[in-house]
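User: what does the whole thing look like in 3D?
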Amino acid sequence: MVRLELALTLSYEIRDPRGADFVFNIHAAQTPQQRVRDERLALSQPLVPEIQADAATATRLMRLHAAPGPLEVRYTATVDIDHHVAEPDTLAEVPVRLLPLDVVPYIYPSRYCQSDRLLKLANDEFGPLWQGYSRVLAIQHWVQKQVTFASNTSNASTSAVDTLIERVGVCRDFTHLMIALCRALSMPARIATGTDYGASPALGPPDFHAYVEVYLGQRWYLFDASGTGIPMGFMRFGTGRDAADVAFATIFGDVVAMAPVVAVRALEGAGLETPRHRREALSTADGSGSARAADASPAGPAALPLPGGHLTTQFPD
Amino acid sequence: MVRLELALTLSYEIRDPRGADFVFNIHAAQTPQQRVRDERLALSQPLVPEIQADAATATRLMRLHAAPGPLEVRYTATVDIDHHVAEPDTLAEVPVRLLPLDVVPYIYPSRYCQSDRLLKLANDEFGPLWQGYSRVLAIQHWVQKQVTFASNTSNASTSAVDTLIERVGVCRDFTHLMIALCRALSMPARIATGTDYGASPALGPPDFHAYVEVYLGQRWYLFDASGTGIPMGFMRFGTGRDAADVAFATIFGDVVAMAPVVAVRALEGAGLETPRHRREALSTADGSGSARAADASPAGPAALPLPGGHLTTQFPD
Amino acid sequence: MVRLELALTLSYEIRDPRGADFVFNIHAAQTPQQRVRDERLALSQPLVPEIQADAATATRLMRLHAAPGPLEVRYTATVDIDHHVAEPDTLAEVPVRLLPLDVVPYIYPSRYCQSDRLLKLANDEFGPLWQGYSRVLAIQHWVQKQVTFASNTSNASTSAVDTLIERVGVCRDFTHLMIALCRALSMPARIATGTDYGASPALGPPDFHAYVEVYLGQRWYLFDASGTGIPMGFMRFGTGRDAADVAFATIFGDVVAMAPVVAVRALEGAGLETPRHRREALSTADGSGSARAADASPAGPAALPLPGGHLTTQFPD
Amino acid sequence: MVRLELALTLSYEIRDPRGADFVFNIHAAQTPQQRVRDERLALSQPLVPEIQADAATATRLMRLHAAPGPLEVRYTATVDIDHHVAEPDTLAEVPVRLLPLDVVPYIYPSRYCQSDRLLKLANDEFGPLWQGYSRVLAIQHWVQKQVTFASNTSNASTSAVDTLIERVGVCRDFTHLMIALCRALSMPARIATGTDYGASPALGPPDFHAYVEVYLGQRWYLFDASGTGIPMGFMRFGTGRDAADVAFATIFGDVVAMAPVVAVRALEGAGLETPRHRREALSTADGSGSARAADASPAGPAALPLPGGHLTTQFPD
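Assistant: Here's the predicted 3D structure for the full assembly of 1268 residues, as structure tokens:
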């Protein structure tokens, strides 16, 4: 088990005289694998934020309306993460007809992951491989070989297709490209965001992080698309189809945002592990993170090779 | 109340010797406003499909694995639609901080609705308008003025941004552009698909249809972005963020698809209405179409003008 | 006649130990309308640059290979501009079949001006207008109404289509959009670059400028797409299909570029005019700026309305 | 020497009552290496077309205004092609500072060849290779490995970037991608169009063709990007930056175009060769195809390795 201590400060200046609306996703998700031991939120304005958890993903959104002037949001938490650990060789892809219903949307293209345009590329590069965990690893390695990590090389409209062309990006861009390639092979894949761990100081101060979860066997497994961190030390805030769903802050109104300050450390002690690179597959989420889990179909591994390279969609005109 | 009788036939030739997987969304959604009186499914292969309804949206997905050779899917249903009817003037936009949690994702950009790129355009064109139903109507009219309906002018990768440039498209394209503009103003908007009603025979035989639902007051209201049909006669199959979520058929494997055959008629009789164009706002879905509805925040109309034209999103790098 | 005095300084630090190649376009073009009275070039390294003028456009390119270390390029010139002045009402569009051969390429789409995607938009908005100078003015006004000038809102891959969507940009972006719209109506249009005159100090210090030339009657006429300057005071360096052709500096090698320093002033004296906004059409270039001019077809005004809204291109597959 | 006999028929129906304007590029270019022995043009309407040759490229454009009704254009020619043949190992790339002025534009990005977005990819893949003919071959092989030839997989707005993503296309798409990659390495590259030779009958009847010319040493050398034909048998019509410049027909007005009919055969006889695949480099054009050639700088092979991977462009804002 890993125990992480987080301190996070966000600072804003609200210039709109009517104030501004904020939607934050900066709370640690609470799941069977990720337990929040204690947490504390401090706001510099006398506000009562509304905080709600999404039943399906355990993502917590905090919404508030701030008055003009400065706003500081400070969140601290101590979180225990007890990963589900699996042998990579046992994790097979799941045919679409056997996927739990709430997993199905993660095979569809999204704003930043245009998997529909990458069908041929994905099948050319990865089609013949064994359909399971090792194929996802092959995709991850391919992405890391094609793309170079460099700060300030992409912007809010950069998508997987752009990254494939320009071959440079930050963790979000690696994540989008890897997700798009997985979906192009009919593998459910989603973005996870939270805090980084183990990144080289050369990449800057501790920060938020974006990485990939792929659905294999009956769970979502972690992959660090950019390869810059140590997945065992990632604390999860949110998951979504792509970055469009998991901004850590969405702000409505005329507001100046300062750079966030993030600090995470792994605590030591009896029964506590220090995050390290691992050969095994790690997961913090089963297929349905909620009360709906009981309704989900059992999804056995694929008995037969899945049909590859032919995906047809029929839409209304 | 409207009573519709639907007969739908889809025909395929499966050429892959391993067979093919299908995900269909061709069942009428079952909601408090849309009740399925009777329905019947016939498959030309001896298959037991899996049919599941999504709790949040009432969309029913049917999944099956078909053997090589021909497959015919025939679905017939009689459906009663009892619209929630509202006075347009009473329907205000809802500030993001008051939206039910499961409505929030519909303000984010998606594969075909890149609302993040249209913030300035939407605010320039519609920013000063009264924030409610009539602003959505203004968007609908603007889209219909800019874009010309023409068959076979777009393809599976055409998005809202393409339609805005090329100014031609089919109902799906009108729908995507209208959704993108609504979201650019922080209004939750989604695609609905099902069957058309009342379209001019000049546009071809009866067909599937795609249209828009916008969240106002505490419900999702219907808008026919392309203006080709009569919303009161639309039967809903599915809803989603955009077409990526609501293909009526997604096929994995080497399959030839024939053109679908769709027939819908409105039954007449005591207490039954014939679909007609209406001035009032129509809805078939409240904010949460499910058991989760009870958890949803009451979303009152906006007391103050919403901050306009300033949307900031902060992502992990 | 206008007499302009220019002083221009470009500063670089060449970090590549092998040195770096530069292609500059910072000399005033020499044309019958724009005469260079005197000019001077000073380089901080002992180099003999190669300077050549393109016969067709009078654009002068200076190429050199600089050694590692600092490089300063200083160019000063005094230039007389004697505009060809025409009555707007006399300037008609020229049918493609009558265009001089070297003007034809300027009706084709280019990197940043995807006129091929704007045929319907251009015909919807401007198709019914009288085909001549006033139609170009209508395009210019439309662009200025749609797009807002704002520094640092676009980048090196921003194209006309992006500007149409995002509705914000700098002079280069206004120029690209206006060119694309003209070409979509089969009007030859090109970018001109040089120095600005008369821009509001609020837009920053004096700078390079990009504007539009449209071929009407038998000449290229000036239009300031962004409306930020006074065309009568523009000094032309280069022309091309779009910004891809007219970078003022293209650098091969590892080089840090400092911000350019530009100073222009209009001299006063007998027979000299101060640049001012004018109702008349201004031109500094005929259809063929070179010895080849004699071969060009006389291009009279269109006797008949040109066919509108139907452009077909047939390509090899 | 190769002697080719061409017969070409284009058929149209002009529906616009005002008639329609056409710009054709269907005449064999006349160059020192490609001599037209005899040629004949027949038009089914009594028209006197205007035919002009571009001095720089030898491309001949034919322009005419056709009356409503049918139009048939029939062009037959016998053409001798005497290729300049060079040893691949002797052909080095030319530093930009030594390129003839009229070759410089071919290193810039264009509508369908967005080389500016491929700098990193091109340098990653081809940066370390010897800078000459063999590097261009490496690019050609890479493109053929990535992209699959398939008819009807692209359209008039498909660009190099799209082909890189979707990995499928026709000869035009292969050509655009190869050109974009060459330019991203500062190698002048252009499209050539004309007639095909030696393509597999499986790819359809004889047709127009698009291929690549790259400037090496002091000449433009032929590369068949799609690898579907035998370059020694290609007859050249036009060259340009990309397909935007070399449509074989551009039509203004409401016109229905029928499929072109193309027939080419290689004549046999004393001193005549049958086109065959060759190891040597072939060229039909020197750096300046015109009277301007005498002004061009002699362009020796690069004495030093060229700076790689750093291209900076400075534009006016």
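In plain terms: Chain B has four helices and 18 strands. The radius of gyration of chain B is 20 Å.
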